[in-house]
Amino acid sequence: MLSYYHLETLLPRLFAFLIAMTLHDAAHAGVAWLLGDRTAKQSKRLSLNPLAHLDALGLAMIVFGPYGWSKKMPIEITQFRKRPKLSHTLVYAAGPFTNLLLVLFFWWLYFFLPAWFGGGTESITVEEWRVYLQYCVIVNLMICFIHMIPLYPLDGWYILKGLVPSHSQRWLGKNERYALILVIVLLITPVGQWALAHIYPFAAQLIMNLFSL
After folding, report:
1. pTM for the predicted model, two decimal places
2. Is the N end or the C end of the chain the one with fewer CB atoms within 10 Å?
């Protein structure tokens, strides 16, 4: 089974995280721009350059576990031209949806890569790249799953706010700090560390089993 926490997996993890994070944030910024909000573009976040999105602490956390984060995306709901509530929801749904598409793309690439090298799977180059592709699948799937959790400041929180009535939106807005505290607790306490240490190997093993079918 692929191990996540060992140092030898650092390069594949960073490679996968940079792709997943960059396209996740670029999707947010791109959909916001299409719907009328230029804030992210003006902040130079409508970019495929990873440096435009990197958060130093979020990147450092990738070294120690299967989670990390980028800089907060500047979105202004008042800038949307039509149906701001729906537009806001679509912007935040674009990130996880992009990661899901990347899961399918890298899964496909994993199986078609040997054909591009003459149909053999024995090549060291092919096998090395397949390891990177496996991590691209795993990391994108984990980012998609984590960001769909309805806790602030994850995308799922904003998607939930867009789907509930106005009075529920106000209640959610008042309780953002408590949701943030819960996320922090899950990340730094033994309970959260235990969950990450057990859930990730299970998910990774499941994906690797599917690769071997």
Report:
1. 0.83
2. C
